[in-house]
Structures are given as C-alpha cells and as structure tokens.
From TrEMBL, chain A:
This is Lipoprotein-releasing system ATP-binding protein. SUPFAM superfamilies: P-loop containing nucleoside triphosphate hydrolases. Belongs to the ABC transporter superfamily. Macrolide exporter (TC 3.A.1.122) family. Residues 5-224 form the ABC transporter domain. Pfam families: ABC_tran (PF00005). One of its GO terms (cellular component) is membrane protein complex. GO terms for molecular function: ATP binding; ATP hydrolysis activity; transmembrane transporter activity. Keywords: ATP-binding, Cell inner membrane, Cell membrane, Lipoprotein, Membrane, Nucleotide-binding, Transport.
From TrEMBL, chain B:
Belongs to the ABC-4 integral membrane protein family. LolC/E subfamily. The chain crosses the membrane at residues 21-44, 276-296, 317-345, 365-385. It is a multi-pass membrane protein. It is found in: Cell membrane. This is Lipoprotein-releasing system permease protein. GO terms for biological process: lipoprotein localization to outer membrane. Pfam families: FtsX, MacB_PCD. The keyword Acetylation does not apply. Residues 19-247 form the MacB-like periplasmic core domain. It comes from the Bacteria.
Length: 225, 401
C-alpha cells in the first residue's frame, strides 16, 4: 500500500487573541490507499476538524496536507473544489441530502455539477450504486420519503459516485439504530474490500470502530494512539 | 449551465406558493409599467392629435419680397421696397414642387393653398373671415373637413363655399343659401353655401371659410402659384427632419409644426418624465421584491449550499443557480404582467376611437417587450447580491447548521 493522504504538524486555531482556541496541535497522520480506518476520540478532541481539513473544506493554520502527491495547503479555492469533487467523498452524520431532489438526483449530483448536466452514463452509475445499496426500488423517491437508514445509504452512494480515492465519514451511523448502522457499515466494508476505496470514519462507537481494520485515536489535538 | 437551470427550477417549484406570490408581485409591477406606458403614450398621442393633428405638420410659406433699395449711379436713393408691402408673396413654382414633396418619405398628404383675409356678407350682416382656397379633391388633406361636416359636403367646386357652424349661426346661414365673399383686395364673388362643419376649435368654426383654389385665385387675383403648401406626415415627430429634407430638396422656406410649439413640447416632455418616474418606481419595486425574496431563499438554503460546495460545486455554479432563479422569476412575472396588462387594455377604445370622458389608453403603446426585457434584467440585477451571498457561504458552517 502507498500513502494516499499525509498530514504533518497540523495546527488549527479558531479565533484570535485571548479568544483563540487551538483545536489541532501538531497532528500528523498518514492514510494508506485502501485502508478502512476508524477515527476515535472524545468530543472536542479535533476529529471533525481533522476530517474537515482532510476534505479540503478548511485549511489548517499551520502544517502540511497532501493527497495523491498534491499540496492541498497551497491550492486555491477553485483547485480545491475540483480536487474535492474528483477525489474525495463525504458521508455526514445527518445524511445531508438535497431535500428537493430524488435519491438518484442526489447520487448523481457530484458528477452532474462537474459536467454541467446529468448524463446518461451518470444516471446509469447512480442507479447501479443505489441498487448496490439495496435501494433499487427507491431510485426516484424524493429523499423526504426515505427512512433514516435509507437516506444514509443514499449518502454513501453519493459519496462513491465519482469513484473517489478517499471517503470521509463523520459519525455516519451516529443517527441510526443498531440494525441500520450495521447495514451501512457492512456496505462500507464491502466497497472498501471490493473497490479499494479508502475510508476514514469518525465515530464514538467502539462497536463500529471494531469493524475497521485500523483505529486512530485523537486526543487534545494530536494522535494519541 | 443546463444543470444550474435544473437546480434553479427545482428550487422554484419546491416552494410553489412562495414562488407564485413572488411572480405575482413582479407581474403587478410589470402590469403597472405596461398600463402606464399605454396611458402616457395614448395621452401624448391624444393631446398631439387634438392640438396638431388637424394642422399642417410641415408648411412651405412663400417668402416675402426682400426689402430693396434702388440707388442711382450718383448715389441717390430712387426707390425703397418694404418687405411684404408690394404684393402677396407667392410660391409661383408650386406645381413643380408638389410631386417632389409627395415623394418624400413620410409625407402622406400635400395641400397647395391660397390664403387671405376677406369679408362675408349676407344682407346687412358682415363678418371678417379667413379665406382658404383648397384644391378640389384635397379638401380634407390637412384639416379633416369630411370628418367635421355637420351639414352638406366638404366638396369644393366652382361657386361653392364651406364654413363653420358658429359662423353660419352668426349669419343665420343655411345650406344652399347665397352669400357674398369679398377679398381684402376688394374682389368679390357670390358663393353658395354647400357645407357646414364643426371642428370644436372656436377660431376655425367662427371665422374660417373654405373655397376652391380657382375661386381663391379669382378673389386674390393670383392667376398662378399659391401662398403656402401644407404637408401632413405619417409621424408627427418626424416633422423637423422632414422639413430639413424638403428644404434641402427645394430650397424653400420650410417650417415644421414644432417651430413655436415649445410650450406643447415642454408639456409633453413633462408628461413623459412623469411616466418614466412611475415606470422606474415599478421597476425598483420589482428589484427590491426579487432581491429580498432571494436573500431569504439564500438564508433558508444555506445548508444545501454548503452540501453542494462540499460535493464539488464551485462558487460560480452557486451564483448561476441563484441568478437563474432571479431571471426565471423576472421572465415569468414579466410575461404574466405584460399579458395581464394587454388583457386589461383590450376593453379601452382604440386610439382612433377615443371618446371624451374615457382614458385615452393606447394598447399598441404598452411597451410589452421593453417591460419584459427590463424586468428580466432587473431581476437578474436583483439576484446578484443574494447569489454572491450564497457563493460566500462557508460549507463547514452551513453543513453543521
């Protein structure tokens, strides 16, 4: 396996002066391609901030961040937007689907927004992904009509739409019951195994973490284990 | 672009009631714009037609003989000719110019005339009148005599005279009666009253008489030529340009109706300015309405904008989505408002059939295309601020909301 993502000496400070809060304090982490990694740590440890920086949605105050050999600290907003679209998928705790769109429209969004239209190829890929998530019968359902577990599976399908090398999942099962959570984790494990997609999953749940081959513990802004 | 359009349409159709209200608000603004355009335009035409519609739009006047001094070789003044004293000025070559003038673009009628002062006598009653000799067949070329006739016909033949209702009443004249018309030069002739008109203009109705051109030649001892040529145009506003063109063509003294009509022009300009203000306010209302509605939408959809940004949507894409919404609202509101405006104007009489007591609305001057174009542009302008605000949304903050 080769290094897919590398962060070194990552510092992130919010606010300034006396109100400044340092969330990351020189965190270093390397993710190998194809890893299924759980990110553990108490609330306020910096897990979400780390995921946000790895997802190029935020820049660190200091430190380096590279992915696929690209220096992402130096890149501008336009370059980061394209990079994110092509190489990174997101799964959020509250699914965060577009409420006025169907399941299929949500899934194809990352491709359509880059290509400027919903192509037939994108729709085919979207249908395949939804079928794989067990949602073949829900393809044209408005997302408002789906259950919480179904919505999260749509979110997983959307994260995989552009075949990203890295999927960042922030508490993807945190809002689901145990059965639905296990179903989502089973899908993530299957995709990681079959397609070699790298997953970094932030969770409080030891059971969920135990399903990942690697566990990284963050505490007080650094990797502690 | 196509995908941004789809998203914009989806957002608009997702909140149907809100969108419908917004479009209706824009439509009301456009309706006011169209209504005001039709009213201001119709009113201007109405005023113009009532004030200058029945007068010559361009007039060619015979130039008075220039003052001249005849001096002997020794330097003594032998004779002095004062301007306009020696003879009535004439356009001797009128017959030559008329076909040329008729060929000028925008000219719809040409009326060669002989005009002068005279006295109308019936029995012991005498009235001072203004005499106009018109070419038979062109009686209604300038003043629509045919349209104003209340008795008889406007046709002028040898020995016939047509005059106004008030003059006829003053002299107790009736159709077929004979009267004597004497020119200021002392030539008199007996004429038969063949028609009585009523224009509504007191001056014309009480002191104007119309005779045929041959009769006027006799009265004013003018065997050839005319004193003036009156010209009517298809477009009143083209009078200045047409006058210049005819002047260049003939070298004659050509005067457009706008000469000496500054007060009327100022009144019309003031009226037009009022219209512009009202229409501008309607547009400003549209812009404020669209901007506030889209700002609200931007705020409500912040989390979705954050998601889109996280999924790889650039700031430009977000801007296009919101600007497209503005443009669609403007287009729909514009079309609806223009359509409603057109329907509301349909019951009003056409400009040819304006009646006293009704609003002189002119359905053809609704400025429908302009209203729609300005509304779409205004709505696009209004959506830029919300769109930029949307593009600046921080995806991390928005997603966590």
């Amino acid at each position: 396996m080769s290094a897919l993502v590398r962060v070194e000496g990552l510092v992130k400070t919010f606010g300034s002066g006396e109100a400044a809060t340092r969330v990351l304090r020189g965190l270093s982490l390397t993710l190998q391609a194809g890893e299924l990694t759980a990110l553990l740590g108490p609330s306020g440890s910096g897990k979400s901030t780390l995921l946000t920086i790895l997802g190029t949605l935020m820049k660190p105050t200091a430190g380096s961040h590279s992915m696929l050999g690209t220096d992402l600290v130096a890149a501008d907003d336009r370059a980061l937007t394209l990079f994110r679209n092509l190489h990174i998928g997101f799964v959020f705790q509250f699914h965060n689907l577009l409420p006025d769109f169907t399941a299929l429209e949500n899934v194809v969004f990352p491709t359509a927004v880059r290509e400027g239209r919903e192509t037939a190829a994108a729709r085919t890929r979207g249908r395949e992904l939804l079928a794989r998530m067990g949602l073949a019968e829900r393809i044209d359902f408005p997302t408002a009509n789906l259950s919480g577990g179904q919505k999260q599976r749509v979110a997983v399908a959307r994260a995989l739409m552009n075949r990203p090398e890295l999927v960042l999942a922030d508490e993807p099962t945190g809002n689901l019951d145990r059965a639905a959570a296990m179903q989502v984790m089973a899908l993530i494990s299957e995709i990681n195994r079959d397609e070699g997609t790298t997953f970094l999953i932030s969770t409080h749940d030891e059971k969920i973490a135990s399903l990942c081959r690697r566990q990284v513990v963050v505490g007080d802004g650094v990797v502690t284990g | 672009m196509l995908y941004a359009l789809k998203i914009a349409i989806r957002y608009l159709t997702a909140s149907k009631a809100q969108t419908a209200l917004l479009v209706l608000g824009v439509a009301v603004g456009v309706f006011i714009f169209v209504f005001m355009s039709a009213l201001i335009g119709g009113l201007a035409d109405f005023i113009l037609s009532r004030t200058v519609g029945d007068i010559s739009h361009v007039t060619i006047k015979a130039e008075d003989a220039e003052p001249a001094i005849l001096i002997s070789p020794e330097g003594h003044v032998l004779a002095v000719t004062e301007k306009g004293r020696m003879r009535t000025a004439t356009l001797a070559e009128a017959a030559t110019w008329i076909p040329l003038i008729e060929a000028v673009r925008g000219v719809v009628a040409v009326s060669p005339q002989i005009t002068g002062a005279g006295f109308l006598t019936r029995g012991a009653q005498v009235a001072q009148v203004s005499v106009t000799g018109l070419e038979p067949g062109r009686e209604s070329a300038i003043l629509n005599l045919d349209g104003y006739m209340v008795e008889g016909a406007a046709r002028l033949g040898s020995g016939l005279v047509v005059l106004g209702q008030r003059l006829a009443d003053d002299l107790s004249l009736g159709l077929g009666q004979t009267l004597r018309l004497q020119s200021s030069g002392g030539v008199s002739t007996m004429l038969t009253l063949s028609g009585i008109f009523q224009t509504g203009n007191g001056m014309i109705d009480s002191s104007s008489v119309f005779v045929s051109l041959p009769t006027a030649r006799t009265l004013f001892a003018m065997p050839q030529g005319v004193t003036r040529i009156e010209i009517k145009l298809a477009d009143l506003n083209a009078a200045d340009a047409t006058a210049l063109r005819i002047r260049g063509l003939t070298g004659l003294d050509v005067v457009p109706w706008t000469d000496g009509a500054e007060q009327l022009k100022e009144a019309l300009n003031a009226q037009a300015q009022t219209g512009y203000f009202l229409k501008s306010f309607a547009l400003i209302t549209i812009v404020i309405g669209v901007a506030s509605a889209l700002l609200l939408s931007t705020y409500r959809r912040r989390p979705e904008i954050g998601i889109m940004r996280a999924m790889g949507a650039g700031r430009g894409f977000v801007v296009v989505v919101f600007v497209t919404q503005g443009a669609l609202i403007g287009l729909l509101g514009g079309l609806m408002g223009a359509g409603l405006g057109y329907l509301a104007l349909l019951p009003f009489p056409s400009r040819e059939a304006f009646r006293p007591g009704t609003l002189p609305m002119d359905i053809t001057q609704g400025s429908y295309g302009l209203a729609i174009t300005l509304t779409v542009l205004g709505a696009i302008l209004a959506s830029i601020l919300p769109a930029r605000a949307a593009a600046r949304v921080d995806p991390v903050t928005a997603i966590s909301q």
